Amino acid sequence: METLVVGSREVSGLMSMKDCIEVMRQTFLDMGKGEVVFPPRWAMPQPGKRGLLGMMPGYLARQGILGLKATSVFPGNLDTPYESHQGAVLLFETTNGRLLGMVDATSITAIRTGAVSAVATDVLSRKDSKTLAILGSGTQASVHLEAMRCIRPGIDAVRVWSRNPEHAERFAKAANGHGAVAEAVSGGADAVRGADIICTVTGAKAPVLEGAWLSQGTHINAVGASVPGYRELDADAVAKSTLFVDSRESATNEADDYRVPKQEGAIGEGHIRGQLGDLLVGRISGRQNDREITLFKSVGLAIEDLAAADYIYRKALERGVGTKVDFNEGRRPS
Q1: How many helices and strands, by DSSP H and E, does the chain display?
Q2: What is the mean pLDDT of residues 57-75?
């Protein structure tokens, strides 16, 4: 049996941001209908805590796919040629457990993270949103700019702040060529005041977004702090916001943007209004008015990676892209 291997250079030609947004929308609809399974992810820190190895299993009933994302997470890679997340997504069929495909996890993690934020932004942000603030200037900053403009094409002003001012300037210069006026600013407060949509995409361990800076009607996508020990929002920002999550269990166990304000008493047990899947199927309500501050806190789920990898795998088969490898060569059932 042959397994199809799809590398990072091939992924971008097989799945656009618009494609991925629709795949993620359907995935969270499936989640809202109870048609997916994703146990808590498992992580093993490397001795010395430079990085960790994470494994995220899941099941997609509609596609008939079992799968696993295995990835290393090395936050210190910011100033190296390597991404902070590297690994592979493995796809297995559910009849005989055959390994169908292996897809680069780095490129999938990048695009699906922005696409999920876009799905949340579509149902939670104001339709007339025009100003976007981005805190961070790495891969996810670029991905989220593309994703936000896909879902809110009226965005015409982008303000970016980074802990590295040179990176912010470089990002703003590159972003100016894509239909919006982008500028680098010297502080997080300058970036987010008056912004309609805010995306926090940093690797911060201490808050970079304060509640005192938020304007009425803002929508926030908080995606950078996905494991315990990392945090982007202060307690006031969370307390002022109506909170939605990708997974209640994951947020409760992994998201310090939620856990720390709760431990401090700034928010209560019921502060999470619900999950994105519940919102999409109409089980819960979203934004109530144009003054409400909404917050989508995501940590990333295996079902996102598996759904994206399945789409890419099927497209690769259609187009004859990728490398076929026989892992079972020489071994046949008796």
Answers
A1: 11, 16
A2: 93
